[in-house]
Specification:
The chain has four helices and eight strands, in the order E-E-E-E-H-H-E-E-E-E-H-H. The protein has about 170 residues and is an alpha+beta fold. The strands form two sheets. It has a four-stranded antiparallel β-sheet with strand order 1-2-3-4, with no helix packed on it. Strands 5-6-7-8 form a four-stranded antiparallel β-sheet. A hairpin with a 4-residue loop joins strand 7 and strand 8.
Length: about 170
Amino acid sequence: MKHSDFYIGLEFLGRAGFRWRCTDVGTRTIIAIQVDKNDPNWYQGPPFIAKEVVFDEKDIPHCFLTETEAITSAIREHNTSGHPGYPSEAVFRMMDERSAHHYPHKGVLRFDRKRADGEILHPYAGRKEGDTWIISLYLPFQNVYDSMPESDFIALPRASAEDIRARVDS
């Protein structure tokens, strides 16, 4: 979807197929509540009992009006992105490490980054070492793990779809 498709009251599917209801449209974001309760009292507002969540420029293109649109988009992305994905062993390791450490800067973990050599770095956890936060990384094209100081990681450019295709071709 595009930002201009949203209006207050619109129900849509977000990532992982959860149903959401738009509660506000901002200049570059939308706000929504998850529609997951049978009791309509959860959805009276504003203000709402249900937690309102911000959808930004990264989230909005992954919203859909129907399940068919969501499935079609997922298939198209899988067939065209070139991203190697995450083997189950890597997913379990990433989940274990993320749950083992309380990392307060969750936004850092939202975006893959690109190293100067073109390698894609997927952040999945953070841990404190002395006074420094260390970001745990998975390199999906090499199926290896690495880490780096948070300040170095966030200084790298965000990885784009073009960066992933370029990495496939290298």
